[in-house]
Structure formats: C-alpha cells, structure tokens
Amino acid sequence: MIGSSENEWDADFIVIGSGGAGLTGALTAAIKGLRVIVLEKTSLIGGTTAVSGGTSWIPNNHLEAGVGVADSREEALAYLNACIIGVGDPTHIDVLVDHGPEVIKFLEEEGGMEFLATRPGGSSMDYRSWLPGAKVGGRALVVGKTATAPFGEFASKLRITHTSAWTFDPRDYNSEAMHLDAPGAQRPGASVFAPPTGEEDAIPANLARGAALVAQLVRGGLAHGVDYRVDVRAEEIIEENGRAVGVRVSGPDGEAQVLRASAGVLVATGGFSHDEELKRLWLSRRIQYSCELESNSGDGHRMGMAIGAQTAGIGDAWWMPHLPLGSDNSIVNTAGSREDRALPHVMIVNDKAKRFMNESINYHDVGKYFDSVVGGWEQNFPAWLVFDGYAARRYAVLAWKVPAEGAPTPDWLRIGASLADLAREMEVDPTVFEATVERFNGFAQAGVDEDFQRGETAYDRAWGDPANLPNPCLGALSEGPFYAVRMYAGALSTRGGLRVDDKGRVYSAASQQPIPGLYAAGNCSNGGPTSCYPGPGATLGAALTFGYVAAMDAADSLAPVEGS
Hints:
22 strands, about 25% helix
C-alpha cells in the first residue's frame, strides 16, 4: 500500500466534493494505489454532474476515428487558442489537449468505464464552427448505458433525477436531429420533451447522461476501495508547515473531526451560484437561474483562500439563458434554452420589444447580451422568447411549453390571439413589437438576417430546420395564437476560483508557488479554457482532466524513489 501508516494518516488522498472532477480524481488516485476518502456534504453522490447531460468535450481522443472524425493535437491547439484569444493560463490548454485523451483511455482501460463518441452531423459540432481546427462530432463523449443493479443498496446514494433513465442513445439526439420532432412523435426520444413532473421515481434499471457518468466513476471507485462519505461537510483545510495535510469536517450530528491525508487534498466543490454574497462581489452580471445544486455555495473557494490560495478567473460563468418553466420558479433550474430559440418562427425581444441578438448562437455566447446596461437600465434582462402557433404545432420542444386546452396558463407564459394582444400581455409597446416582427418576417422571407446574421454559420444551421427555406433558422411569426416565455440570464455554473498549475496544484497568493498537498479541479478552480465554451461538454472535459492530473501528481508524490 502506498502512503504512510494508517495509524498516522486516515487516507492518502481526500477529495472534497463528488461531482465529475472529484470522482475522477478519486478513481484515478485509487487505481494508482492510494487510500481515498470522498467527502460529500449532501446525502447523495454526484454533484451537479449527476443532473447534467454528462457530455465531456475531449479533443483528439482515441474514439474519434471510430465515428469517422480525423483530429490532431495541432488542430485542437489551434481551435482552443482561437477560442480563448490570449486570456487565461496558456498551460491549461496544453493540459486539455495532452492529458484529456489520456484520461479517457485511463478511465476505460483501468477504471472499467465506457465512453461513446458523438457522430458527425447535426448539432454535434464545436460551438465556434468558423474557427480553425473546429470539428463536427467526435470530440464530445458520452458514457454508455449503465446498470444500477450491481450497486445494490448503494444505488440509493446516487443522485438520480427524472432525466437520468436511459431511454435512448443520447448521441441520437444530435445525429438524428431529434429536436425537430413533431409533438407526439412515436420514438423513445420524444420523452425528452416532457416537462418535469416533480415526482420522485423509482431507481431506473439503466442510467444515461450525467447520472451514468457519475455511476461509472463510482462503480470504478468502489472496485478500488474508495471510501464515499455522505452528509459530511468539509469546514477547513488543515495546514502544517505550509502543507495541506487534512480536512476538518462535521458529520450529520454536527460532531467535528479531523481527517488527515498523506498525499494531499483535492478541492472539487463546484461553483458558487447559491451564495448571494459571492455572486454580488465577484460577478459582473447577474445569474437569475443556475443548473448548479443548491449545495454549491463556494465552500472550496473559501477554504482555499483561508490558507492563502490565489484565485483566478473569478467573475465568469458557463453562461446559458434559462426559462423558468417546470421548476416551480426555483433558483435551481435545468430548463436552459438552446434548440428552442434556434428554430424558425422563433425570436427573442427585450422589454423594449426589440431584438438584440442572433437567437441561434451557442448558449454561452448568449450570456454577453444580458450584460448590456444603458443609463442604469439592464436593457435585455429579462427577455421574451416569442413564437407563433405554427411553431407550437410543428415542434415538440415548443409545444410542451404551451398548456393543454382548458389547463391554466402558467405565470411564465403569455398568450395573444394577435401580435398586438401578445404585446399587451407582455406589457410592451404594441406598435414597436409589431414593427419588430414585421422586420423579422422580412428577413425570414429573404433568408438573410440583416441585423444579427442569424443562420450564417454552420453551428446556427445545425440547430435550425433544413426543411425551412431559404434559411433554416428564420421563419415568419404569422400564425396565431402567439406565445411569449420569460427568458432570464442564467448559467450552468459559475467558473473560476482557486488558481491551479498544469498539475492541478493550487498556487499560494503570497509565494506564487504551489501550496504542497493542495489541489483543485472543476468549477471551484480556474482549470480549463478561460472565457469561452469550446464545445458540448467543455465544462466536464476540463473537470475530468484536471481531476486526473491532480490525482496523478498526488500519487507521484508518494511513489518510492528508485534506489531508496
């Protein structure tokens, strides 16, 4: 067994947080022979990763060739460097390109995991398709169908939601353009357009999406002896002689305990979307809704800074506009807006009844349009997602936003028999709104968006409807009734936090050198591409990669020296 005697150390490696970053670090360290403890302050394992799509963006991975995508280190570097435009830590780009493919092979060969590459076509492409080195398909990886039976009673500790069950191969959603399905389409994928019920279902036989990624990481961890502890809150990182050597925790009964680790501590606590003070102090724009769990409140940020850690990249987020539907207007909201706003016969306006963006761009880049303040007024916040009756009858992703006949109208939806009626329901100027729609309809007829160039990139067109000509992203709003859904500034998670080097080691603010024994990965750190979202799964791709390199470094620190 690598490490010091069990009388002195409780573990070799302690991981705080059980999302993708922490679980990857835990599994990697355990495979390398370290004794590992994972601390999770909630009663369920998986973090925000478990409620996510579970996609990991890893360029130049070994699975791409199997779906016909040719990639290279040079192309991956060219694309990422074009995305970040010279900001952030350039060594992090090298880490993603050089170690990202390595972690996928390692987790498959040593951890028993199964990754599947997205097929080319549809919306599987990188988010900035016009940049050099961009690819269609291959770089975005999902995990395969994951059975829950082998977990036995432990399955009840996994975070499972109404979207966790395997109902279809998630890659089919993109390659078969399932976002274009009509209401009532008779195939398994149609179930993704049902709003959440709020009911707790039994544990499904097979998992998909983020729940499957978590389950496979935990499955490997259990096989290698990882000790998962739930309802245990990390309160403080213990430092001795300038080295992180453990964590002070409190258990379900509130009793304090110090756990000591010989190789170090990995902070993987996610973002700070649910700490109002940190958001107010650190963010330059508001986040009204987030996909993060309510337990994500900046614990790791605070613990790291308390022992002198430097921070970097704070103030940014993985932006995504949100619609407050099907979630009882809760602050935790997974109803992000993506394909719905890219379809024809849909547009977005602000409270002045004017368009202000290309509705079809990737969700991260939408965030900047909610940061427009003029004369002290947040001119685009909140906004309205507007569509007509034809769109509601044609596309399931829009149809389920409309209540059934006789059902009450939810507070987030407005309906009008005419455009003027809808404008009055939205409390905007009907004359301005009708003029905006008229101009938009003219663009739809001509196939050219003169204001915001919607439909000019391959990414835009991938989410449009190819049957809609001349522009798959532009369709007139002409058939009543007309609908408007409130749209808010939101994010998948905040990003940025403890500054890490190319091995996931956390820097000291005073010495500008790594704090021995202290690591960070995921959204509590700056590990990853700064200020951009390269492709589907970029959040998890960075999280898995930095969790891996941190664990590898910790294992190396305990490896015996040759000749000793």
